[in-house]
Amino acid sequence: MEQAYYHDRNNTEALLFDIIRQHSTEQALTWIAQQQEKLGEPVSVQRFNLTFTAIPRFTGRQVISTDTPFIEVAPDMPFFIQGYTLDKLVRVWWLLQLPAADRELYVKVIEGLFDAADMNEQAALYSALPLLAWPDAWVFRTTEGVRSNIGPVQEAVMLHNVYPSRHLEEPAWNQLVMKAFFTDKPIHLIAGLDERANRQLAAILTDYAHERWAAGRKVHPLLWRLVGPFITEDNFADIQRVWHSEVNVERDAAALACASSTYGPAQALLAQSATLEAEVASHRLTWETVAARIA
Amino acid sequence: MERIKGMRFFDPHIHMTSRTTDDYQALADAGVVAIIEPAFWLGQPRTGVDTFRDYFNSLIGWERFRSSQFGIKHYCTIGLNSKEANNERLAEAVMEILPSFLYKEGVVGVGEIGFDDQTPAEEKYYRAQLELAKEAGLPVQIHTPHRDKKKGTQRSMDIALEHGLDPRMIIVDHNNEETVKEVLDRGFWAAFTIYPFTKMGNERMVEIVKQYGSERIMVNSAADWGISDPLAVPKTAALMHESGIDLNDIHLVTFRNAIAAFAQSGQIDEADFDTVKDIDQSLKFNGSTVLRGGQQPRIDKQSNIIR
Ligand SMILES: [Zn+2]
């Protein structure tokens, strides 16, 4: 039989609840326990939905602080909780209370939550994608999140979320990255960014850069991170242009792009600056340092 | 408007769905820090419950976000408006989905509900929604009819009391000189809609405040798809100031009273008026300054050049 969860649900639940316990008042914990009890057997869907909605009223919305920015729910699968508000964390945890054995029912209930979700509920639901059961059921929903017009919802799908890079097909993945550039998101927080880099995306982004330049606008330096591994004679002129930019951080981006390329002329270009070459080699210049500087 | 610079305003009745982003900018510039958007009739009758669902969703989703981009805290009231209560088949279906929305965050009341033509169907769904409000512990925002207003207003209040609701939980809207006295005497909140031509003008409003004072009185714009003015609240404050009305009274009728009335929902935290200015940074990644997303870039209206 196909497994509902690809992480250890009980372990994940325990990890999340530990953090919830550290940040909650006695009253909030009592309320949570009551809700768990009232959920019943078989589960009352109405109760499940109402509790999901009501959570902030009883937990409050303070930002939680943890030692690490994420919990490790499976090997190589960090679930980021940094900057979470308590209600959001409890909502994510609450989603794990829905029995998953009956796939059809499970999907119907979760989809129902999405369909009636306010802004914060949507953000919690999209952030929880990596933890939901039946992972292949949420592909379309994820693309809907990318299409959303609401900033916090877009961010919940795009940033620190391992679900899209693991489950989206290439065109949908490319849409996500493209939209992230378009809406000014901190690109370096997209999980799986380098692993899912691809030739088609590099081409889309290069076209996008041309449009920006034509309109007299700036091009996001991290865009070249996704072009670097796919430098060819077709787009090398663009890299040269960035290399000769008057803006430091853009030159740095060009250097890093060249460093990630196997294209001979790109490597030769990098070799023209001993300083940049050394900074890249010693990791004093990385995409992270570039990201930090454009903040 | 110069004389009211620095004052903060709360518009407890404005239909931003029908307005443009320019209006949000103007509201923010005029000192409006928070608003309530009541669910209403969109001008075009709806034919299915799904379009109601999408509309309610937009009030707690897209519109809330759009508002936050201008640093304005957005609340809403949810209800089946009186006009569409007359489509009973549809009304039944809407009643079924209402409860799930009433418990959403930032839903500060049931509204706007009440009478339009004063038909039996309107009465039926008005009563049913009063019961929902009572159960959810939410204030009620009552729309009073344009035609036969005085009788409609009295009837709305009678029925609310009949259902055992506390008048302090009820905001009677669209008052005028003819209705205000009874509304206040019976202990309800009296809201006035400053709306050109069809409702109140703000000179009349000044006279009302002079006569009745500021207790349990509030003003709103009810700006919608008609000829209306989203800046009615700050403009009325300015006119009151010019007319010598005490600043404290102005503060009560253009800010404090509406908050007091709707905060009975437990859903208004004034601290949020400030945090929304950082556009929900709490939802974002702690201390990560890379996030610039958020407030819309301003357009320089004085310039003819568009970038
Ligand atoms: Zn209205």
UniProtKB/TrEMBL annotation, chain A:
NCBIfam families: EboA_domain (NF035938). This is EboA domain-containing protein. It comes from the Bacteria. It comes from Chitinophaga agri. InterPro entries: EboA_dom.
